[in-house]
Amino acid sequence: MNSTDEKDISKLCIHTITTKPWKIEEAAQHFSAAGVKGISVWRDALEGRNVKQTGKVLLEHDLSIVSLCRGGFFPSKDLNKRKSAIDDNRRAIDEAAELGAPLLVLVCGADPSQSLRDSGKQIQDGIGEIIPYASSAGIRLAIEPLHPMYADTRSAINTMKQANDMAEELNSPWVGVAVDVYHVWWDPFLEKEIKRCGENGHLMAFHICDWKVPTADMLLDRGLMGEGCIPVRQIRSWVETAGFTGFHEVEIFSTTHWKENQSEYLRKIIKAYKDHS
Amino acid sequence: MNSTDEKDISKLCIHTITTKPWKIEEAAQHFSAAGVKGISVWRDALEGRNVKQTGKVLLEHDLSIVSLCRGGFFPSKDLNKRKSAIDDNRRAIDEAAELGAPLLVLVCGADPSQSLRDSGKQIQDGIGEIIPYASSAGIRLAIEPLHPMYADTRSAINTMKQANDMAEELNSPWVGVAVDVYHVWWDPFLEKEIKRCGENGHLMAFHICDWKVPTADMLLDRGLMGEGCIPVRQIRSWVETAGFTGFHEVEIFSTTHWKENQSEYLRKIIKAYKDHS
Lengths: 277, 277
Description:
The structure is a homodimer.
Chain A: E1 12-15, H1 24-33, E2 38-42, H2 51-60, E3 64-72, H3 79-99, E4 103-107, H4 116-137, E5 140-143, H5 160-170, E6 175-180, H6 181-184, H7 190-199, E7 203-208, H8 232-241, E8 248-250, H9 255-258, H10 262-276
Parallel strand pairs in A: 1-2, 1-8, 2-3, 3-4, 4-5, 5-6, 6-7, 7-8
């Protein structure tokens, strides 16, 4: 599909952080007016708000609430910090339930003062510990493998294979995987692991953006689809072949794009979604 | 080993780029005076010099010339550029031979306008094409897998497994692998793939430094061993268990360290080598 007019946007979801300068109510209004059908909510966007009421506002704008971002950050050498992380994840599950989001995305964390293997074990233990709480609340948990450049502090789960392994070991209908093209595009086993993820019923979310060439900042220089070198459309085809029918979530942290007029930027997002994903 | 005094530095090699502010002749003099036994030479350090004569200077300082950095950058959508890359790699092999370096390190390259698979094929074809030339010159070629954050333009070979696979497929005594802790430390299969590399006689070089937490720049903010979160000593033990007996090469690009007094920095390098590798 090459023409902007041909492709429908009924599966387009946008993360609140993508249009960070907008308050969540503004984002909901603009997304809805533009025909966007899904929204994923970052917890900072809920600060100082009645979460249940905010969820209602989103639904009134005819938006599906796709996920809450984010829980996780389980590992620490310090047992008390690990306990606090569990508590925070329970709070995130509560927020997801109040908001009406069926899925909590997990950025799993890593403690650079210990081995990645130890951090990995603590992640698995941490998720195992919150599964009953998530299940009671009806909230699914998605392990998001993060790019290896975040292995120091953000996640000890850096490939789809690791995420799949962990989801299979935890063996719960409440635990799956979130695929973000930014983190996994380079992986020679990506197609195979996406297939495996789908076959096991673990493919719970699909995030899109692009890898800019060059990338100026390790965290805040993501590109719009088409601005970089990630074969977004190809990865989407793998995800769909694996049976995924959910939303395509645009998640972009970008100081450059945050400086733009956000209405204009929203138009670019929709065009990029149509042309390059 | 915890004490700075206990560990000998007979396997310590330093890359010219590590102490970039020094001309190669200065570096040789300082390294030698400090008891460093090996030097790896970056091609920019040879600019405007008689390469053979420079090699002699290094030997006169009782330095083993460990490797020349770097060849590679094979992929391009453009056939003429691929041909130019082959020519440049032949020149690099000539330089290595003139210098007296037995090994050329390959940063393999990637063209973001095509798939990583296509870039990978062009890398393998390119190395295949220069093997006879390398063999005639007596120069070995080491494929260096690069961190996935460099998959856009610097290398389509991003894991030890990919490098091992390629070295095995090329199946030449002149082709092996260079292990750099910075690029591979996050990989859950690292120990296994280092073992495999050694068993196949492909383990040709070992580069050390550290991953700073946080890392401010994707290219020029590497740390001294001990300044970050890489388990350098553990990876060294894996490399040695795999049969590697060569030099431990300190390769650090760091605008921070380049600003220091380089004599003072050299003392820090030696201390970091003794204490953390």
